[in-house]
Structure formats: C-alpha cells, structure tokens
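Limitations

Structures in this collection are predictions, not experimental determinations, and the ligand pose is part of the prediction. Treat each record accordingly. The example that follows, with zinc ion as the small molecule, is included so readers can see exactly what is and is not provided: the inputs are given verbatim, and the output is the predicted complex.
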Amino acid sequence: MALAIVTTRAGVGLEAPEVLVEVHLSNGLPGLTLVGLPETAVRESRERVRSALLNAGFDFPTTRRITVNLAPADLPKEGGRFDLPIALGILVASEQIPVSALEGLECLGELALDGRLRPINGALPVALAAQAAGRRLLLPAANANEAALAEGLQVLPVEHLGQVVAHLLGRESIAPHRLAMPALPEGPSEDLADVRGQHQARRALEVAAAGGHNLLFAGPPGTGKTMLASRLPGILPPLSHDEAREVAAIRSVCGLGLLERWGERPFRSPHHTASGVALVGGGSKPRPGEISLAHHGVLFLDELPQFDRGVLEVMREPLESGRIHIARASHQRCFPASFQLVAAMNPCPCGHLGDPRKSCVCTPAQVQRYQSRLSGPLLDRIDLQVEVPALPADQLTSPAGGESSATVRERVLAARRRQQGRGALNARLPGRELETACALSQAERAWLADVLTRLKLSARAYHRVLRVALTLADLAGEARPSRAQLMEAIGYRQLDRLRGTSMTGREIA
Ligand SMILES: [Zn+2]
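Predicted complex:
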C-alpha cells in the first residue's frame, strides 16, 4: 500500500471546505513533490515535514519518490495547517502506521522542525465542519478550546507528532478535550449608570437599541460620545448561543481570542485612518474586516467625516443586506456583517461650534465643507441624529447615577417583543408595512408633511420619522405613534436641519 489519503480542511473565508491529502510513494527519482495549487507556505511545509518526521524518530522515505496532492486543486490553500496531514500521509504510505488508524478522523496543524505542533487560525470553522461531517478532529492542543465550542465534536488535542503517532498506533491514548461551555455573561461590562447627564443622548441610545436604528452623535470633543456608544451592546438583547458561535467563528478566522469575549455583543471602534481592507475586509486572501468583527454587535465610527468616503460608500451594502461581498480576480467571498452603526462627529473642524466652554474658530465656509463631507446616502441610513452638547459645569461634578443598563435593557426587550409580529425590526421594516403599522389618519399625514416642510426637512425624512416614532410607541407599549411621539422623532433629525436645504432637491428626486 503506497497510497494514503488523509482528510483535512482548508480555510476559505469563514468556510472550511474538505481537502484530501493524497500521498503516493513510487520508484521514480527520489524527492518530494507537492501538487494541487500549493502556495508558498505549503511549499515550505515540505521542509518542515521532513525535519519533523526525522526529529520525531520516524523514517523519511529518502529513496522513493513522494508525490503529495492536495485535492481539490482549484481551492486556494495557505498556511502550515497541512503539515500534519502530509506527515501522517507519508507515515501511512510508508507503512509506519496502518491505514485503518485514520478512519473517521480529520487532522490539521503546523509542524515545528522538532515535531511540536503549532496552532492555526480559523480552528472553529474547521471544528464546526468536522462535527457536521461526523468525524473526530485531531489538532494542536492550543486550538482545542476553540474547536470544542463545536458541541458534540470529539476533539483530540496534541502537542507533538510523536504523541499523534503513539495514539494512532494504540500505544498511548489521547483523552478527548473537554470544555465546559462558557456561560453567557450575565450583564454588560460597561454600564449606562456611569454616564452623567446627556438625557437626550441616553434616550436616543435606548431608541436605537429598541428599533435597531443606526445612530449619529454630533457634539464637541469630551462630551462622552464614545462612552455612550460603548454602552449600546449592553442594552441590546443578550446573544443566543448560535449568535455567539457565529461571532466566535469570525474572531477565529481573524486569529483573535475567543473565550475571553464569549457571548459578548461585539463593539468595534476602528480609527478613521484604518485602511479600506481593515474596515470592510479583503486582501489577496480575503479576510473579514471590522464590519464583520462587528457582526451581531455595534460598529462605532468616531469622527465620521474623517473616514475615507469611498470606504463609507462600500458600507451601504452591508447596512442594507447584513453581508459584504468581496470580489477578487480569482474568487469571491461573502462575509456576514450585520451590525448596528453608531457614528460620532464634531460639529465643525475645531470641534467647538455651539460649545459654551470654548469658542469656535472655524469660518462658515469651513464648517459647511466639513459637514458636507458626510455622504448623503450613508446619512440616509442613519435614523437617529442627536446632538450631544457640552455639559454645564454643575452636571460635570454631579454623581453619575442614572438608570442602569439592566433597567434600560428590560424596556428594550419589551419593545422588541412588540415588533416580532411585523417580521422585522422597525429600522428594517419596508415602507408599506411601516405605513400600515403607523396607521396615520389623513389629517395626521397632512400635519406631518406640513411640519417637515416648515422645518425644511426632506421628503426622505418622512419614513425615517415614522420608523423612529413607531419605536417610541413600542417603547411606550402603545399600538401606534401619537403626535407627541412623531414630534420627538422629528427632533432626531438634527443634522438634516444643520445641513439645511442643500440636499433637498436631490433627495426628493
Ligand atoms: Zn469650529
């Protein structure tokens, strides 16, 4: 038997498709040939596998021709994860371990020259796929906790090639790894009770959480915009185990730790200088970006006007569909990116327009240019725009002591229960369903149109206002929005008013 087949998995985006490592020993010119689209790291694995086998005390068949094929050939393959399957394939093909030892088993891991196993990225997607295939998974011990998040999978953690072989020969048994499933966190790590004042901003945060609305805070530096935004995950509903696993799978592929953040709703706050690839994902071997790391959680963009406009435009797709497609010449990837956007901005370049503590040094032209940097289509996807003013001195020194996140979350959960019958959160409710749910009378509609016109708000603002008003009604436990709730909702279009009428023509068209 000079042919061996070992089952392993590639990492393609968030997927882990099966790869068969076929090893054939023949009597040709001695040497080791790797075929099946191996990239540089895989080619280097030739040297690592040889050293690891020799240093672990096994025979490396130096007098035979070794052909290793990674199938299917059209799948991109990267990293050192194929070292272990290649080494085991050589050991089976050269009859140092029996074929039967590999039955029902998948394995992967990078080998050090002395035969020790190094961890790989993306172990969780591999584990989920192995579990679905009904096989056991043998992988580096450092990845064992992560892999064990795939419930019901038998995970065999290994430190060294010698230990793997001893196990497969039945000389020394490896105990399957046990991980007590981490409990989902009880409460948020950052609490709204720590925030001083800012009643309108706190209210907007609650409305955003209740209806799934995107939110923009505008105000001078140092007024707590970041502090407020970071409290949004803590008032959203807790993650389910399935959602927690999806979040963990993305972190796994990005090589980030899983267990310390297990069950927390993500909060990602990339800097405005971050590259497009870092933000939305991509690269020659496409990886998820910040918007995918924020999946099921919150993406916070501080100083929104400073972000590259092109990158912000790309975010329109995930804001609509909850996923991002990344096209490359050779392949296309789709990553989940269903996040809630919270953005913040200063009112002007110096940051102090309207600030009683310090006067603004910007010219009106500078202010206008700064505010017009915001993309209209992106702003159209932000239902709530709220001013976060500088606090009066007496509020700065007063104790924080507002409502706790737990109290606010109860109201958010109740409001979300009211939305269940509609099929979507209010932020994503299609126009027709929205109109039906709000059930405005002819007179109310005329009144609202009149108010919007007098405030110089665009026609597009009409649906935004309805959406938010419906969430206000849900929070109040009422069937449909009242005039007071419509007025409150209009109050959350502050930036539209700052931007004045310049956009109106385009938006109505
Ligand atoms: Zn200024």
